[in-house]
Records
---
Amino acid sequence: MIVVGLGNPGEEYADTLHNCGFCVLDALAKKVDKKPLKAECDALTCVLQINGEKIVLAKPLTYMNNSGLAVKSLLARYKMTPEELIVIYDDIDLPRFTLRARASGSSGTHNGMRSVVSSVGTEKFKRIRIGVGRNPFDLKDYVLSKFSKEDKPHFEEVFAKAADFLYAFLQNGDWDKLMREANSDKNA
C-alpha cells in the first residue's frame, strides 16, 4: 500500500490549506513513530510494516500540480497498482473541517488530483479528502494561505482523526468501515 499526502514542499507552504495531505501524513507518521525522510521517486518516503504488509508513506516533492509524476514513479518503484494507492488532499468543495473518504472518483477541481489521475491512468484509487471550504475571491491565494490561529486546532483534530482512520484501515484492511466512519455526520 502507498499512502500519499498531497502538498507543496518548502517552509513557505507549511501550514497552508493546500498542504492538508502532508499534515495528515505527518499525523500518521507521528502515530507510528516514523518520519518520511528518504528521498526517492521525487518524494520523501518512509516504509512501515503493518501485519506483514509493506506500507509506503510519501510526500511528493514535485509541487501540487505535478504530484502525479511522483505517484506514478512510486507505484512503479514498489511494484504496486492504483488499487493499492491512497491519496489524501484538501478539498474546497467540502465544508471546512470535514473529512470524507471514497473508494474512487473524479479529480474534481483539484489540480494535484488531476495530475495523479492523468499519471496513473485511472480514477480507481482510494482517497481521503479534507474540507477547507471555498473562498469566493482568489482560489490560488486562498489554498496557499496559512491556517488561521482560530482554525489550526480544528484542522489538527481533523488530521488526527484521518490518521486514526487510516491506521485502523492499515491494520484491518476494511476500507468500507473507514468510509462509514470518516463519512459519518460526526466528522462534518
---
Amino acid sequence: MVTYSRVLGPEFDVFEDDSEETLVGSSVHQGAIVAINEGIDDCAARRELPWFVGNQLTLVFPRQGERPPAQPAPDICLHPTLTRAPRTSLLVAVDGPPALIIEVTSPSTALARDLNMHSETGKPLLYEAIGVPEYLVFDPHGEYLGKQVWARRLGPHGYVPWTPDEDGRWHSQTLGIAFAPQGFLLRVYDQDGALVPLHGELRDENGELRAQLATEQRRIAELEAELRRRRDE
C-alpha cells in the first residue's frame, strides 16, 4: 500500500544513480562509514528502538510518470520505524523517506554529488525534494569543505544550514542523538549525551572509556599511511 505520495519531477531526470565507482572509497572513507553505522545502531539497540540503519543501501525514489525511479545509495541512512530486519533496499513510496542521511566524501563524489546544492545532479536537492529532514556530509580530511562537517536540515522552504550547538556537536532534532568529528571519524553521542564507544573500545572498571591500545595504534598507523598516500598523489 502506498503511504508516501511525493515523487520527483522531470528536473531530476539528470540525476545519475550511484555506481561501484561512487560507492567504493579509501580505507579512511570506509572506516568512517563503519564507525557511524556502529554508533547509530548501538543507540537504537540499547533503547530497543525500531530504527533501521542502512550502510550504502539503495533508496528507491519514485519519479513522475513512467520514468524509472532514482536510486541513490547513501553511505548511511536511518529510518526510524522499519526495525532492524535485513533489507536490500528502501522503497520511499511505501516506507517514507529516511529521517537522516549521512554521506562521507570521496574524490569521486564530494563536489559533484555530495555538496552540490546548485543542480539536480547533486544529492542535496534530491534529498530535499523527497523530504529527508536532516542531511550531513562528513569530510574526514577537511579537504573539500575546509572543515569536516557540512550539514542541512529541512525548513519550511527547503534545506537550511544545520549548525553545531555550543558543545560543538550536530544535534539531530528528529532522533535525539548527536555527531562530532574526532580525528578521521565522525563520532556518535547517544540520547543522554554520552559518547558511544566503538566496537573496538572498552570501558574500564570505573566506567570510563578507554581504547584498546593495540587496536588504536593499528588504526592510527593505517590512517597515517593513507594520508601520506593521498598527499603523494
